[in-house]
From TrEMBL:
Gene3D superfamilies: Intergrase catalytic core. GO terms for molecular function: DNA binding. The keyword Plastid does not apply. This is Integrase. Belongs to the 'phage' integrase family. Keywords: DNA integration, DNA recombination, DNA-binding. It comes from the Bacteria.
Length: 453
């Protein structure tokens, strides 16, 4: 209880001696043999202003916390990062920018160097303050595997916060794979030791998969670009995080031409009507997978968007029944939407309206399990010969929805809005225009037997 009260005391570790405040703090027993300053840390703050004293105290407190944590952790990458950060904070508390000694001697004027020396007068020759001011603490140099762990735990923690568990898992897995390939090709190198030649090895690996000299490749240019981009981003974000944004990125400008992007072919409209919507065609799919497949036909929403709808965004009692595709902002159950333009409302017509009347609470079986959903539906379509060619997939229904809107000459901006694509003007309004959207979609709604739902 005493320590807890101390942590919330606004004047903790402050002593007024004469007219000046001093920072005084007991060194924890666990690290007393490793911290050579004795049982107590004492430092004059050279100010009689209580607010300024508290600010300086905060800097020293943070630095000591980091120092003691690093001493208890020992010699590992996390300890090196802690030691470096505390050196930066100590230098700042004394009015200096932390720089390595070699940089101080080559880049700073003599006057500033003398000021650094004068600020340490009275300090032991080997003390945290002297090391910080004179640049004697080496910057951290994690291996790329440890840098990736730091990337996940600290650097992009805020970005991961809004992802669902499944989104987070898949997002991490893609970046882990990029790093694993690099380690297999090169080695688990310290970040500062990664060279352009190392980056070129990774680039050649993907080039040989995308465009081998003796035949067609087994990977797309976009796959190669994504993997090189993952390494480039990790490298840049890591060095920005540890305070070296100017570090030259060896993965810069290494990419692949992607002029012939492969696109999934759409289903012909008569194939959807006569094959997919035929009674019995989807009967052996479980009810929720079948519902999503049928709703996909008349909404064009991504399967992941449909799988993660819930009761609060399914509006069957409105004048225009519709679904709202939007992020889940529940901190206990978050989920991101692919892009800002993907947030939209889609009127329900035809078989999609019938599906949501049967599933007014959505499809909980496939919440955050869109990979399993796609595997289940693709397997069923293949087994029952519901694909026109071997190039078609379940996702091809989204391209079919877009083509059907084009063929019916629906307004381009309306098409882009319903597909969740970006537009170069403010989005359509709501209210009366929802009725117009419904009327336009009715033009492409396909006939169906209610028994298929």
């Amino acid at each position: 209880m005493g320590r807890r009260r101390e942590e919330h005391d606004p004047d903790r570790y402050l002593q007024l001696r004469g007219v000046h405040f001093h920072y005084r703090r007991r060194v924890p027993q666990e690290v007393r043999d490793l911290d050579h300053r004795g049982r107590f840390v004492r430092k004059s703050l050279d100010t009689s202003d209580r607010i300024r004293a508290r600010t300086l105290r905060d800097l020293y407190e943070a630095a000591d916390n980091a120092l003691w944590a690093s001493l208890m952790i020992g010699d590992n990458p996390q300890a090196a990062r802690i030691r470096y950060k505390l050196a930066v904070k100590r230098a700042e508390s004394l009015g200096f920018v932390y720089r390595p000694l070699a940089e101080i001697l080559t880049a700073e004027p003599l006057e500033t160097i003398l000021q650094r020396v004068e600020s340490t007068i009275g300090e032991p020759a080997k003390s945290p303050a002297v090391d910080a001011v004179t640049g004697m603490v080496e910057r951290p140099d994690d291996k790329i595997s440890d840098a990736l762990k730091l990337y996940f735990s600290d650097i992009v923690r805020d970005e991961l916060r809004t992802k669902s568990p499944d989104q987070r898992k898949r997002w991490k897995a893609k970046r882990q794979m990029s790093v694993d390939v690099f380690i297999d090709l090169v080695e688990d190198k310290p970040m500062s030791k990664i060279t352009r030649d190392d980056a070129l090895k990774a680039h050649k690996y993907w080039l040989d998969r995308i465009a081998p000299e003796d035949g067609p490749g087994d990977r797309s240019a976009s796959t190669g670009n994504r993997n090189m981009g993952n390494l480039r981003t990790l490298y840049g974000d890591y060095f920005r995080h540890i305070g070296f944004p100017e570090q030259k990125n060896p993965f810069a400008d290494l990419s692949f031409s992607d002029k012939s992007k492969r696109s999934r072919p759409p289903f012909p409209t008569d194939w959807i009507r006569d094959k997919i919507l035929a009674p019995g065609a989807l009967a052996k799919l479980n009810a929720e997978a079948r519902g999503i497949a049928l709703a996909f036909v008349e909404t064009g929403c991504r399967p992941s968007e449909l799988a993660n709808l819930h009761e609060g965004v399914i509006h069957l009692d409105h004048e225009v029944p519709h679904i709202s595709v939007e992020p889940r902002e529940d901190p206990e159950d978050p989920r991101e939407i692919k892009t800002a333009s993907s947030v939209r409302k889609v009127p329900l017509v035809g078989v999609a309206l019938e599906v949501f009347r049967k599933h007014p609470k959505g499809f909980p079986q496939y919440k955050d399990r869109e990979t399993q959903l796609s595997a289940t539906v693709n397997k069923h379509f293949k087994k029952h010969e519901l694909f026109p060619t071997d190039k078609h997939t379940f996702y091809s229904l989204r391209h079919s929805f877009e083509d059907r809107m084009k063929n019916a000459r629906l307004d381009e901006e309306l098409r882009r809005m319903l597909m969740g694509h970006s537009i170069d003007r403010p989005k359509y309004g709501e209210g009366g225009e929802m009725k117009m959207w419904q009327e336009e979609l009715m033009k492409i709604a396909l006939p169906f037997d209610p028994s298929i739902v």
